[in-house]
Specification:
single chain, 434 Repressor (Amino-terminal Domain), mainly alpha
Length: 104
């Protein structure tokens, strides 16, 4: 999975394997090997790639489909299980309303 994600992120950024290798300070053959899932990058390379592309290591590893990283300073709200998609949209709309109201 990491190979697929790394390749996708590299291409979306418009980088060649050579360019990404230079950014990560490794050789091009390593990038090629990682992208083809022939070898797995060491943790330090996973972390460097995640930071460079602004994604989580969990995303690179295929643990989550979400690219967002966890921000410990952000406010998060855990929603109760069983909410419908419509209920979730209603909550998002209400949160937006409250944010807009509090700006005034």
């Amino acid at each position: 999975m990491i190979g697929e994600r790394l390749s996708e992120l590299r291409k979306d950024a418009g980088l060649t394997q050579d360019q990404l290798a230079e950014i990560l300070r490794i050789n091009k053959h390593s990038i090629s090997s990682y992208e083809r899932d022939k070898s797995e990058p060491p943790d330090v390379i996973k972390i460097a790639a995640a930071k460079y592309f602004g994604v989580s290591v969990d995303y690179l590893l295929g643990v989550t489909p979400y690219t967002e990283t966890f921000d410990p300073d952000a406010d998060y709200l855990k929603l109760p299980a069983g909410l419908s998609a419509a209920d979730k949209e209603t909550l998002k709309s209400y949160a937006s309303f409250l944010a807009h109201r509090n700006k005034k």
